[in-house]
Automatic annotation (TrEMBL):
GO terms for molecular function: catalytic activity. Signal peptide: none annotated. It comes from the Bacteria. This is Putative redox protein. It comes from Arthrobacter crystallopoietes BAB-32. Pfam families: Abhydrolase_6. Transmembrane segments: none annotated. InterPro entries: AB_hydrolase_1, AB_hydrolase_fold. Residues 33-139 form the AB hydrolase-1 domain. SUPFAM superfamilies: alpha/beta-Hydrolases (SSF53474).
Length: 259
């Protein structure tokens, strides 16, 4: 039975990020970092269930709360897409320092876009997985519509996302608008797995097509038909983890214990 370990490591914002490492029982085939969606956190259905399921397949995973969310310190409103990318690199450096070099990056929703932005600086990473990711990070700005007048006039506004009342600062909006991942995707130089549901009502399936088209081979696409954007059903997350583990087999040195 896989176990878990609670960890902490520094964010580039100066906050302390709280993480959970899901540890396989037996031989560890690889270590991964999972980056959660925009405001979701390490205990969201996608992050927690996929990480735990991957541990059963011999892949240990670090998932963590972004600054100001969950058990992490700091102010979420001080973060941007760029700090999200940089904190993935912080997470990988933390794992490296613990003797757990990261071979696999996995990102859900905006976290999927973030891993595409982060991997270029992580030579040790062998493969990348995106789940329900937007091609352009600016896609999430529509979630702020109710706050945009205040953001433009005052530099800050408030919006309710995922049941949380959060401040949206102009620096976040501007950072999202100027971020272009096309070059990062084209120059990935790593195997890429793009996973997306054709019925995703939050981030449309066309985003997966744009990511896939921009990427060079080796690349793969797997349709998560029947899944919602948040992958709230356990069957959805277990299936996603099984597919990730099967796809990653060719890039890892040892066999899946459940194969």
């Amino acid at each position: 039975m896989p176990t878990f370990e609670s960890v902490k490591f520094p964010s580039v914002t100066g906050a302390v990020l709280a993480g959970t490492v899901d540890i396989p029982d037996g031989e560890v085939r690889a270590w991964a970092v999972f980056c959660h969606g925009f405001t979701l956190g390490k205990n969201s259905a996608a992050a927690a269930r996929i990480s735990k399921a991957l541990a059963r397949h011999g892949i240990g995973v670090l998932r963590y709360d972004a600054a100001g969310l969950g058990s992490s310190t700091g102010d979420w409103s001080d973060t941007t897409f760029t700090t999200k990318v940089e904190d993935i690199r912080q997470a990988a450096a933390f794992m490296q320092s613990a003797g757990r070099p990261v071979s696999l990056l996995i990102g859900h929703s905006l976290g999927g876009a973030a891993v595409l932005g982060a991997v270029g600086a992580l030579d040790e990473v062998k493969a990348v997985v995106t789940i329900s990711a937007p091609y352009e990070p600016v896609h999430v700005v529509h979630l702020f519509d109710e706050a945009m007048d205040d953001v433009e006039r005052q530099g800050v506004g408030e919006v309710t996302l995922g049941g949380k009342r959060l401040q949206i600062r102009k620096q976040l909006v501007e950072d999202l608008k100027r971020t272009d991942l096309t070059g990062c995707i084209r120059n990935l130089d790593r195997p890429l797995l793009v996973m997306h549901s054709p019925t995703d009502q939050t981030v449309g399936i066309d985003n997966a097509g744009e990511i896939f088209q921009a990427a060079r081979h080796p690349k793969s696409f797997i349709s998560l038909e029947g899944s919602t954007h948040l992958l709230t059903d356990r069957g959805q997350t277990d299936r996603a983890a099984l597919l990730i583990a099967a796809w990653a087999n060719q890039y890892l040195d040892t066999e899946d214990p459940l194969a």
